[in-house]
Write a structure and sequence with these properties.
The chain has 243 residues and is of the alpha/beta class. Helices cover 30% and strands 26% of the residues. Helix 3 packs across helix 5.
C-alpha cells in the first residue's frame, strides 16, 4: 500500500487546520497520506475540547502578536513557533486506523523516534509509569504540550524531556493524526538534526509501518468555496471561543 506524500506548504493557522480537516473529509482515497507543513507566523493551536479561559491563561506570558486556533483534534496547547509539524490521514478500514488510539499513537511515534535516533538524538517513546527522566523531566500542567509528556509521546531517553506529541480525530472517513516535534528539544546535548534527512527517514519508516512505500503525490484539488468557508470558520471568534 502506498503512503502518499503531499507537497510541503506554509500557511496561516486557520488554513493549516482547514487543509488537515479536508484531507480527512474530502480526499476519498484508499491509501494513507502525509504532509509536513509550516506556519506563516507565530501560532498556537489547542485541542477541540479545551476551555478558552484555560488556553488564554496558559499563554498569558507569551509576547503578542500570534495566531490562535482551535483544532478539530484533541490534545493540548501546542506552540508552533519553532516546531516541525505534520498531518497523517489513515483511511477507514486500514489496520492502523482500527487500532485503539493509544496503539496508533505509539506506532506513529515509534517511527518518528527511530528517525530521530538515526540523527543521533536519544529519542524513545515514553513508556507506562515513570521509568524515564524521573529527576530531570519537566512536569508542567496537563493540557499544555511540551511541558508534560504522556504515554507514547517521544521523549529524550536521558532527560525525559518531551520532543514530540500529537492529537487524533477519528470519524467515518478514517483517522487524522496531527503531530508536532519541538525542534529545540531535539537539539539536546548538541545533536544537529538534518531536517530534510529526518523527513525522508520518517516517511520511509511510516510507510513500512503502514505496509507500503512512500510516493510523492500532487496536492489535491479541493473545492475553493469549501476551503475558503472552512478557513473562515477556523479563523472565527465563535470557533475559537466555542468552549
Amino acid at each position: 500500500m502506498t503512503l502518499e506524500i503531499l507537497p510541503t506548504r506554509t500557511s496561516g493557522a486557520a488554513e493549516n487546520m482547514a487543509n488537515d480537516f479536508l484531507l480527512l473529509q474530502r480526499y476519498p482515497r484508499a491509501t494513507p497520506r502525509f504532509r509536513h507543513y509550516g506556519w506563516r507566523g507565530p501560532a498556537f493551536t489547542f485541542g477541540y475540547s479545551q476551555k478558552i479561559a484555560f488556553v488564554r491563561e496558559s499563554l498569558a506570558a507569551v509576547e503578542a502578536p500570534f495566531e490562535l486556533c482551535r483544532r478539530a483534534t484533541g490534545g493540548g496547547v501546542v506552540d508552533h513557533r519553532d516546531d516541525w509539524t505534520f498531518a497523517l490521514v489513515i483511511p477507514r478500514g486500514h489496520p492502523l486506523e482500527e487500532l485503539r488510539a493509544t496503539q496508533s499513537y505509539r506506532e506513529v511515534h515509534e517511527a518518528l523516534a527511530a528517525a530521530l535516533r538515526a540523527q543521533g538524538v536519544a529519542a524513545v517513546t515514553k513508556p507506562c509509569g515513570n521509568e524515564l527522566g524521573s529527576e530531570g523531566a519537566p512536569t508542567g500542567p496537563a493540557g499544555v504540550c511540551f511541558q508534560r509528556a504522556e504515554i507514547y509521546d517521544v521523549v529524550h531517553g536521558d532527560t525525559g524531556e518531551k520532543i514530540a506529541g500529537a492529537a487524533q480525530k477519528r470519524n467515518k472517513h478514517g483517522l487524522l493524526f496531527q503531530g508536532s516535534l519541538w525542534r529545540p528539544a531535539a537539539h539536546v546535548a548538541g545533536a544537529a538534526v538534518d531536517w530534510e534527512k529526518f523527513e525522508e527517514d520518517f516517511v520511509a519508516r511510516l510507510a513500512v509501518t503502514l505496509g507500503g512505500e512512500a510516493q510523492a503525490t500532487p496536492w489535491p484539488d479541493f473545492h475553493e468555496d469549501e476551503l475558503a468557508g472552512l478557513v473562515e470558520q477556523y479563523a472565527a471568534t465563535e470557533w475559537t471561543e466555542s468552549r
